[in-house]
TrEMBL record:
It is found in: Endomembrane system. Residues 8-69 form the Longin domain. Keywords: Coiled coil, Membrane. This is Vesicle-associated membrane protein. It comes from Boothiomyces macroporosus. One of its GO terms (cellular component) is endomembrane system.
């Protein structure tokens, strides 16, 4: 299964709204992970079982939160579930095959560059 399968909007470790396209214990795992995320802007990844959880604070997400309005500052846990459809749309638009292909190509390019750099270092060491 490719693409985004679970997403949540949180305020710190408090999940305000979430959406998943499959079943799993994503909510309980994300709660544990959110407690570990550093304060301020961050982009971190954690792995659990066969899944990767990518935590991203990004302006695009901030604009999504702006749609929710000031309620995001005061809502209790899961207090914004009516925005689940908005989150589902966000997930779908960011899981398109074009975007996934683009990311895979970028990863391949980085891997190729790293392999070339390693080969150069090994060549220098052999002289």
């Amino acid at each position: 299964m490719g693409g985004i399968i679970y997403a949540a909007i949180s305020r710190g470790p408090t999940v305000l709204v979430e959406h998943a396209i499959t079943t799993g214990n994503f909510a309980s795992i994300s709660t544990v992970i959110l407690e570990k995320v550093p304060q301020g802007d961050s982009q971190v990844s954690y792995s659990y079982d066969q899944y990767f959880f990518h935590i991203l604070k990004h302006r695009e997400i901030e604009s999504f939160v702006r749609e929710i309005g000031d309620r995001s500052r005061t809502a209790s846990a899961y207090g914004l579930t009516e925005f689940g459809n908005n989150l589902a749309h966000f997930m779908q638009s960011h899981s398109s095959p074009d975007k996934l292909t683009s990311v895979k190509q970028e990863v391949d390019q980085v891997r190729d560059i790293m392999q070339q750099n390693i080969e150069r270092v090994l060549e220098r060491g052999e002289r």
